From TrEMBL:
<keyword id="KW-0210">Decarboxylase</keyword>
<dbReference type="GO" id="GO:0016831">
    <property type="term" value="F:carboxy-lyase activity"/>
</dbReference>
<dbReference type="GO" id="GO:0005829">
    <property type="term" value="C:cytosol"/>
</dbReference>
<comment type="similarity">
    <text>Belongs to the metallo-dependent hydrolases superfamily.</text>
</comment>
<keyword id="KW-0456">Lyase</keyword>
<dbReference type="InterPro" id="IPR032465">
    <property type="entry name" value="ACMSD"/>
</dbReference>
<dbReference type="GO" id="GO:0016787">
    <property type="term" value="F:hydrolase activity"/>
</dbReference>
<dbReference type="InterPro" id="IPR006680">
    <property type="entry name" value="Amidohydro-rel"/>
</dbReference>
<dbReference type="GO" id="GO:0019748">
    <property type="term" value="P:secondary metabolic process"/>
</dbReference>
<protein>
    <recommendedName>
        <fullName>Amidohydrolase-related domain-containing protein</fullName>
    </recommendedName>
</protein>
<dbReference type="Pfam" id="PF04909">
    <property type="entry name" value="Amidohydro_2"/>
</dbReference>
<feature type="domain" description="Amidohydrolase-related">
    <location>
        <begin position="46"/>
        <end position="320"/>
    </location>
</feature>
<dbReference type="InterPro" id="IPR032466">
    <property type="entry name" value="Metal_Hydrolase"/>
</dbReference>
Length: 328
């Protein structure tokens, strides 16, 4: 029987975003029934879906979308109220104004110390395409290390320049361009490149206790891990090589990737205590996540104890949260 589940890439839309435009979600809106209602809800609708999928605790985070510092603050306050109303079922990841890097450290600190959030989930780059390997973002990462909370790097949409360069063409249907640039492929390769940029910039030498989470079975990195280990020494002298960083600074989740095939790879080259269950609700279904865990249980790839680690134990240790058993 699948153990109780803790899921930590689970999204909502704040009132600040609902008042604006959701045009960037056009593909998802076409294919996921009731998406806006599910994103807007941090209450009964979400709880019912969690129960169907045997999710005991959900770490809720804001869905991707460019937000100002004031919008982030409002969204975090709204989420904190929802967590307060259901503390046994919800915990919070902060959203940070990554397009205003000078504001990020203070908001993360406020959310952890005043709102009891367990970390942050942020977009993978700023609105102008800037990644976070520059000095402007060092205070954000320093705050995360000092507070001993993880930062979850979540995919976001490419800039128009990147969209034009890689994902559009006369022979490519618009729907394919949108999908390729986002959830079908581009999002995941983009997060992988970002992690490698952070390593190449020496961030993990400066902040050796920094904790980074990435989703979707490791955003392609487990499959390429040995290749990266082979070639990354050419990038310059590092105190800590990439395998050390992978083992000590990077956690990965299952979010929305329902196949035991990538898990088989992960179990060969990734520390088991750095592998976490997640769903990617409401873009993915809690029922599908539960089915995946049942298939993993039956696969013979993990023991009972290892399945419990992935299901909830690793998240409890990383985030200092605790599930409450709700089902026999």
């Amino acid at each position: 029987m699948v153990p109780p589940l803790i899921a930590l890439e689970e999204h909502f839309f704040s009132q600040a975003v609902l008042a604006g435009s959701a045009d960037s979600y056009s593909e998802q809106l076409k294919h996921i029934p009731g998406l806006i209602d599910k994103l807007a809800d941090v209450g009964d609708l979400r709880l019912k879906s969690m129960d169907v999928g045997k999710v005991s605790l959900q770490i809720v985070s804001h869905a991707p979308g460019t937000m100002s510092a004031s919008q982030c603050r409002s969204a975090n306050d709204q989420l904190a109220e929802a967590v307060k109303n259901n503390p046994d079922r919800f915990a919070g990841f902060a959203v940070l104004p990554v397009s205003q890097p000078a504001e990020c450290a203070a908001e993360l600190t406020r959310c952890v110390k005043e709102l009891d959030f367990v970390g942050a989930l942020i977009e993978n780059h700023a609105a102008d395409g800037t990644y976070f390997d520059g000095s402007a973002y060092l205070p954000m990462f320093q705050a995360a290390q000092d507070l001993d909370v993880p930062i979850y790097l979540h995919p976001t949409w490419p800039t128009q320049d990147l969209m034009s360069l890689l994902y559009t063409g006369d022979n490519i249907p618009r729907a394919a361009s949108i999908s390729l640039s986002s959830s079908a492929f581009g999002w995941h390769s983009d997060v992988a490149v970002h992690v490698l940029r952070l390593f190449a910039a020496g961030l993990f030498d400066r902040l050796p206790r920094l904790k980074i989470i990435i989703g979707h079975m490791g955003e392609m990195l487990p499959f390429m891990l040995e290749r990266i280990m082979q070639l990354s020494p050419r990038w310059g002298t590092r105190q800590r090589d990439f395998k050390t960083v992978w083992d000590e600074n990077i956690w990965i989740t299952t979010s929305g990737d329902w196949s035991v095939n990538p898990m088989a790879c992960i179990l060969k080259n990734t520390k088991l205590d750095h592998v976490l269950y997640s769903v990617d609700y409401p873009f993915a279904r809690n029922e599908d996540g539960l089915k995946f865990m049942e298939e993993l249980e039956q696969s013979g790839l993990v023991s009972v104890e290892q399945l419990e680690m992935i299901a909830h134990g690793n998240a409890e240790r990383l985030l200092r949260v605790k599930h409450k058993k709700r089902w026999d």
